[in-house]
Design goal:
By secondary structure, this protein is an all-alpha fold. It has helices at residues 4-15, 19-26, 30-38, 45-54, 59-64, 70-91, 93-99, 108-134, 145-181, 191-206, 212-220. Helix 6 (70-91) runs antiparallel to helix 8 (108-134) and helix 8 packs antiparallel against helix 9.
Length: 226
């Protein structure tokens, strides 16, 4: 119990909260939280319960701390999930090769490999930072209002990026059906959209590695949230 202050600090940092954020949630001053963490003063029982609630922990964890390997196991599991996603993206190479075995199948010829490569680099960026985090080389940023907004904005940008390619995927499927069935199917011609996607697709094909950086940024910004 003599390490209550260290336990509070460890749980706060795990949650990604600053002393100011914790103090605001507890309706106390930042100096009060600092005093708890440095051992200058100790929270009473009611405050211990409040601290545990805010930090989404058990009171026993505030009193006695987390098991040494608990965080490591949790982070290793998250890395395992990321690696499974990477493996799945690698395995997509085979079905994509079968679909694109013809010399030209419209937009799908470029779209499927481009989307797969960009997704690979995105997940690889997150996994690389997760590995670095397990070795304590880097730590995710503290959870603050600005970091939550940046994380939300980055996720919105990536979602918009994916949604923009959906109509192009539909057009590619129509072109593939036309090619294999020798039919005459029509689809809307939107020059402005197709011109924009032509440039975006060129970026996917030539520079898919740029998605490594938003992947790493998502890890730094605590995605997925603890």
């Amino acid at each position: 119990m003599r390490d209550i202050g260290k336990n509070i600090k460890a749980l706060r940092e795990k949650k990604g909260m600053t002393q100011e954020a914790l103090a605001e949630a507890l309706f106390v001053t930042r100096q009060t939280v600092s005093n708890y963490e440095t051992g200058r003063s100790r929270p009473d029982l009611d405050m211990l319960v409040k601290i545990a609630g805010v930090l989404e922990a058990d009171v026993n964890q505030v009193l006695y701390g987390l098991p040494a390997d608990q965080d490591l196991i949790r982070e290793a599991k998250r890395l395992g999930i990321g690696c499974l996603i990477l493996l799945g993206l690698f395995l997509l190479e085979l079905p994509f090769t079968l679909v694109l075995r013809e010399p030209y199948v419209g937009w799908l010829t470029f779209l499927l490999p481009g989307l797969r490569s960009s997704a690979l680099w995105l997940v690889l960026g997150w996994c690389s930072l997760q590995i670095a985090g397990l070795t304590r080389l880097v730590r995710p940023m503290e959870e603050q209002k600005w970091s939550r907004r940046v994380r939300r904005g980055l996720l919105i940008l990536l979602t918009v990026n994916a949604v923009l390619f959906f109509p192009l995927l539909v057009i590619g499927i129509i072109q593939a059906v036309q090619y294999f069935s020798h039919s005459m199917m029509t689809y809307p011609q939107i020059p402005l959209y197709l011109g924009l996607m032509d440039r975006l697709l060129l970026i996917l094909l030539l520079y898919p590695w740029i998605y490594f950086f938003p992947g790493g940024a998502l890890w730094l910004l605590r995605f997925p949230s603890p």
